[in-house]
Amino acid sequence: MKGDSSAASYIHLVHHLIEKCLIFRMSKEECMEALSKNANINPIITSTVWNELEKENKEFFKAYQAKVSQSKIEDKRLSEEETNCLSVDIIVSDSPKGSSDD
């Protein structure tokens, strides 16, 4: 019976860590990578627990996926806007000041 208790507590730990990943709006793949790298949890275990959570909380995960997807699009757009602004700043700062063709 001790093995069952140990396995259950391990799954509970993975569940808890997945919830932490959700707070940071990580995708399933990002969560699997983070837990593998930082908590030494096999990605297959993370994936299995994530899938079970999805089954139990379909509406939550549907809304979560939409929010994460929208957030990623906004982050990409923001990054492109920042790059464009930086390019404009560089062009403006590199242009000769005080020169006049009049």
From TrEMBL:
InterPro entries referenced in this protein's UniProt entry, alphabetically: CHP01589_pln
Pfam family, one: A_thal_3526
NCBIfam families found in the cross-reference section: A_thal_3526
Entry-linked PANTHER family: OS02G0137100 PROTEIN (PTHR31871), OS06G0705300 PROTEIN (PTHR31871:SF61)
Name of the molecule in the record: Angiotensin-converting enzyme 2
Provenance organism: Parasponia andersonii (Sponia andersonii)
High-level lineage: Eukaryota, Viridiplantae, Streptophyta, Embryophyta, Tracheophyta
